[in-house]
Design goal:
The chain is of the alpha/beta class and about 300 residues long. It folds into 2 domains: about 80 residues, Arc Repressor Mutant, subunit A (Orthogonal Bundle); about 200 residues, D-Maltodextrin-Binding Protein, domain 2 (3-Layer(aba) Sandwich), CATH 3.40.190. Helix content is about 40%, strand content about 20%. Strands 3, 4, 5, 6, 9, 10 and 11 form a 7-stranded mixed beta sheet that branches. Strands 1-2 form a two-stranded antiparallel ribbon. A two-stranded parallel ribbon has the order 7-8. Helix 1 packs across helix 3, helix 1 crosses helix 4 and helix 2 crosses helix 3. The longest helix is centred in the first third of the chain and has 31 residues. The chain starts with 15 loop residues before the first helix and ends in a 7-residue tail after the last helix.
């Protein structure tokens, strides 16, 4: 069965300049008056009117010594011509409104640690000076942040792992430490530190394989000859914390366990002889100029993002 063919696009459409000649002639009451309104010669206006009538195949105006009058066909065309010109005149304002709104949009992606522990506070502080900015935050693991940046879905991203960011303009916004984290009921609860080899004796509860926290911690431990195999993998720090009540340990950022540590619902232990530290980064694609709210937020981060005190 043959599909219906779409109607062809007119290769010689009515031009806005021709419609303007018609509307100006009617409003001024004469071709001479239209020429003054349009800042054209009378001959130029006449030619545009003639082209319009030729395109439509009808006479639109009756010209006389007293001016111009619309023909019956002209009375049909004139309102639509006027509406079309009005719509055209609104286009620059519509585009300007769109661009103004776009300058207030702030599309961000953040790794879980930064998104959960730092970014909301930064945005609240930034918003005191720019309350009209509308931030949206996508919280994913570090590879997901970089992917969102590279495809242009977000303007600024925040990462925490060992992923290469050579194609990014980057800004260090915080430092962080990763510690062994356990429930108070764990048999290690009275300990002050744990040897790397001891970690092999307990179930290891880990974040998903793309997690920056997991990548940094396991890489550091591998340098001591300890290769951890997760007994359980979960996709958020909150899920890790809940899972600890059943036993085992995890490796978590000090940034995301501050409240639980103060309340002693979780305990943190350093790995003996090994400081697992990292830098957290804000980044955007190199060679891309930030505009609007994104540029303002980047400047704010440069001036105000403070390094947290290590526990």
């Amino acid at each position: 069965m043959n599909e219906p063919r779409p109607a062809p696009i007119d290769s010689d459409p009515v031009a806005g300049s021709e419609l303007a000649a018609l509307v100006a002639s009617v409003q001024a009451g004469s071709v001479h008056g239209a020429a003054d309104l349009l800042n054209l010669t009378q001959s130029a206006v006449t030619k545009r009117l003639q082209r319009l009538e030729t395109r439509l195949g009808v006479q639109l105006l009756v010209r006389s010594a007293r001016g111009v009058l619309l023909t019956p066909a002209g009375t049909l065309v004139y309102p639509q011509a006027h509406a079309a010109l009005t719509a055209l005149a609104r286009i620059p304002a519509a585009v300007a409104d769109h661009l103004a709104a776009a300058t207030l949009e702030l599309d961000l992606a953040a790794s879980h640690t930064i998104g959960d522990a730092l970014l909301s506070g930064w945005l609240l502080s930034f918003g005191r000076d720019r309350p009209q900015v509308r931030p949206t935050i996508e919280i994913v693991n570090s590879p997901g942040v970089l992917q969102a940046l590279r495809v242009g879905r977000v303007s600024i991203g925040f990462v925490e792992g060992d992923d290469a960011i050579d194609d990014m303009t980057s800004l260090p916004v915080a430092t962080d430490e990763i510690l062994v984290t356990i429930a108070p009921s764990h048999r290690w609860s009275a300990r002050t530190s744990i040897a790397p080899s001891e970690l092999l004796s307990e179930p290891y509860i880990a974040r998903e394989s793309g997690s920056g926290t997991r990548a940094v911690a396991e890489s550091a431990l591998a340098g001591t000859g300890v290769a951890l195999t997760p007994s359980l993998q979960v996709d958020s720090a909150e899920a890790l914390k809940r899972a600890l009540s059943a036993g085992g340990f995890t490796l978590l950022s000090t940034l995301v366990t501050e409240q639980e540590t103060r309340a002693r619902t979780l305990l943190r232990l350093p790995v003996r002889g090994l400081a697992i530290t990292r830098t957290l980064w804000a980044c955007h694609p190199a060679g891309v100029t930030l505009n609007g709210a994104a540029a303002d937020f980047w400047t704010w981060l440069s001036n105000h993002a403070c390094l947290p005190t290590r526990s």
